[in-house]
Fold this protein.
Amino acid sequence: MRKPFNLWACAVTAALMTACAKTPVPEPLYPVPSENQMRWQEMEYYAFIHYSLNTYTDQSWGYGDEPLELFNPDSLDCRQWARICKEAGMKGIIFTAKHHCGFCMWPSEYTEYSVKNTPWKDGKGDVVGELADACREYGLEFGVYLSPWDRNHPEYGTPAYVEYFRNQLRELLTNYGPIFETWFDGAQGGTGYYGGAYETRNIDAKTYYQWKETFAMARELQPGILIWNDGGDRGDLRWVGTEAGFVGETNWSQLNKEGDVEWGMLHYGLEGGDSWVSAEVNTSIRPEWFYHESENTKVKTVPKLMETYYHSVGRNATLLLNVPVMPNGLIHPLDEERLKAFAQVREEAFADNLAYKASVSSDKVRGDSRKFSASKVTDGKSDTYWTVNDQDKTGSITIDLGKEMPFNRFLVQEYIRLGQRVRNFTVEYMQDGEWKKIIDATTIGYKRILYFPTVSSQFIRFTVTDSRACPVISNIEIYRAPQILDAPAVWRQKDGKVSIHPADQESEVYYTLDGSVPTTASAKYEGPFDTDGRIEVRAIAYEPASAKSSPVASASFDLPRTDWKVMGAEGTEKLFDGDPVSSWHQDGKGRFPVALTVDLGKLLKVSGFRYLPDPNIWGPGIITQYSFEVSADGKHWQTVSEGEFSNIKNNPVEQTRIFPVCSVRYVRFNAFANTENSTDIGYAELNLITE
Ligand code: FUL
């Protein structure tokens, strides 16, 4: 009996082997990523570190005339930065070797405006060098941000500066070991010191820097390099059109080599584009990029960081998360704590893959070959995959967990070495013998992670419903992540009414008004409530099922704006409704300044103002140049603050300006320029700081 059985087994094996041998792998769907792009994509998460002279002047962008004496940190320790990033699970660090102010954090031989002429280490220090060494010690990749715009350099705007820029890049790419990424920021040209000229210099970002030659030099010096470039020529990676920490749900790693890249292409990529250009989501752990003491209460919460993770790594992008360095040369303990907590929550969320080695089946498979069977998506290997015949653009895989289990995360990966293919897919679960849809989604790419309220089932079905060519799926993972509760948002309307908004509808909310930490014994939020005067609201969201609370939301409010009236305008409610998303627009009818005059109803002692720009994506009309005037009688006006809101286009966070206290009944906020080059001015909120 044994002999024929063996013969039969041999015959089956032989037949299968022939089928495997006969079934060719799918043809790549071009473009496909380079080896450098693959390596970079697999890094997934790495740090940005912003540190420069601005750290000492509380600015977002230095002007280029900041004195060198300012740079003298007493505890600078790049090993602390590297240790924190390593412990946070990051794979590398990109450092602002030179920001727009032109100050060099390494002793460049081409300028005097560098660490070599500062009191720090008697001019013998080199921050870039120390950080490169620390990265090597901690097993991190190292990258450099070198700002093309240089507000210090006398020759900025002429061909001589381009040579200077290239010389600096050569220094950085030659003297500091392997560099995995260079960042050439898109903020290019404008006002500056420029060696004492104090003027505006505009350049054509497409032609001025001659990127082709610069890129060629960079690739020759560092064959493993990835180039991020926001102006002119296409690099290897792309910006996603916002610094708020998310890329489009639909995200193609493709763009065209030539032609303009509009916002939508940055955010969603371009299906069918002729070049592989993947997305990198850059955002900061605080509202701004550089350290500002005033932002110590605004370090992003773990739930917010998790959301950012799902909206970057979970949407086929990498996450470049910025951590600023304090004036003493160290990362703030709060940022360190948050980064570690974020790492732990990620670890907990993705600890137990329910689909690993689960039994799987598919409705079709390429050439009936075992080599491409559905089991390849749960074998834990990144170089095996399930695929179907060339003519098939759809297909589904059913995963049997063995028994009913709760889950709320679904992770899927395409084998992108053969190109990005999937346009649409669905995930369903079986309940009472019927398939129920969890989610309809679009692209996958390198990695897609879906999150949804917990469901329980033994069977999950993943279906590709549309694909540019036969789908090629290398991995599926399923998790039950613990619930994360976010700090609720607190708004105060014009009349003083406070409303509290938890991130998820199921949690309860508790709050205090006396500065104490809220617990479930505090007042329970039942709806908007009246308040008066200056107040501090603290609130938590609470999930009864797990008895877990969110981090505490703290919001301080100045006097209510009850009597305020915008003069000469109607329908301005959204300007004072406390909602950071709703906005009011003022039509300047083609003429600057566009003045917003507010009657406060009575005399108040005022010492500052806060402007929250319209955060919406389309035509936000964010003010970039302003002046702020005050008046006690509406006739005699005094300018108390004027200037620019730096980097407000990319990072539209609240702007605060302080001025000497004055008695005021009327204020006038003048806009002289906005981000749209138009006179349509957008405001989400306007507030005053009173004595
Ligand atoms: C922006 C810059 O202007 C910011 O200051 C920051 O460096 C950010 C990463 O890029 O465009």
User: Anything to note?
Assistant: The pocket of beta-L-fucopyranose is lined by residues 60-61, 185-187, 282, 289, 647, 650 (CB under 6 Å). DSSP finds nine helices and 33 strands in the chain. Residues 1-5, 7-18 have pLDDT under 50 and may be disordered. The longest strand covers residues 395-414.
